[in-house]
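To: structure desk
From: M.T.
Subject: fold request, one chain
Message: Could you run this one when you get a chance? Sequence is below, nothing fancy, just the single chain.
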Amino acid sequence: MKKKLYISYSILALLVLSFAGCDKNYSDPSRATQDNVNTSTKGLTGVAVSLQSRYAAGRGNIYNTITMSGFLANELVLLNQGNTAELQLSLGGASLDGANTVLGNLWSNSNKIIFDANLVITNSEAFPDKSLVSGLVGYATIFKSLALGDMAAFWERVPSGTGENVTFITRSEAYTKIIADIDLALAGITQNPISSAFLGTIPAGIDIPNTLRALKARYALYNGNYALALSTANSVDLTKKAGFLHNATVNQNGIYVAVTGTNNLWQPINNNLGLPTGITPDPADKRLPFYLSENLTIAPRWRMNGFAAALTTEWPIYLPGEMTLIKAEAYARQASPDAGLALIELNKIITKKPAADPYGVGADLLPLLGPLTPAQILTEVYKQRSIEMFLSGQRLEDSRRLGRPQTERKRNFVNYPFRERDQNPNTPADPSF
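Reply: Done. Structure tokens follow.
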């Protein structure tokens, strides 16, 4: 039954992905059908499951965030200039405007995910089975958090909602909103543990409460709440995976389909992962052969491996190593910085063997010797995040937050899509860079 349900929802998701245009009135013209979806457990579960396909499949948020951050923070090299949107991102600066389809698709897709997640969260509250409700709310909150977090990573201000002529909020307000939503979801799960029946209706691979805590730690860090980031990262079980499982037919690895399998779009920029002199990876770092494959006969030499190695390769929502690096950064940035404790966390990443990581991501190097100043710790945090979390869509945010030179970025933030500006008079001014 689960396989049939999953396939039918995957087909539903493909239909949802065909949604076009920029109108934020997402209501279905077939009102009776929409009302049935909104009020039935089967209908809302179907909407919840479609969130994962919209986020992870094809040219969804995974592709768009990796492509945007990868070009703007120097992780990628363009192979074919006929890909106009990717060409603009590779050039950055004034070459990138609101007509770019990659940033436009991320904007529209994120808004749609948030809209559908809110539909699930709001309408499920009326169901009597609270163990089902906690599952629906927790699962939908994961994708709502990711979508809003993706928008905050690339735009200076983000919509406060999904209606017409919405106002905009700051990135800090967006992160605060994400954390509040996650807290509500976790409280519901604590009061009413998620039923096994609900877990049997969604794709496998995601531990809902653990994933919510990991996302809370991420966005608390990005919001400068270091005490909360530290305590929450400490609550995440680092032995558990949380990722999008793929198969070779309906639910394929989108980055493999678009990039690895074609070799006609983009690839990793080099075996230094685009990092500048002074913080390049140690050649003995075992994360390099994890993330890169090498072709000595046909260009480009360095190609995607790791989480884009095959149609069926799992794509993680977060890596356990991200939580450890959150702790290192939080220790170095807290009111009374503790570089010693930060170095201990850094060395957990630097010395980690691939076999000790649930995904096989491990540097297996000798520990870094101290003492280091908090500033030196933050430089090393940036280096280790850039290697450990290569092409996770996080480097542009890391580069800004950790004070890297602006010359290492092709843009700080991107323009608002013309499709938004043309319809919403509240759209903010575009960034200067």
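Reply (cont.): Residues 1-23, 27-33 have pLDDT under 50 and may be disordered. Let me know if you need anything else for the meeting.
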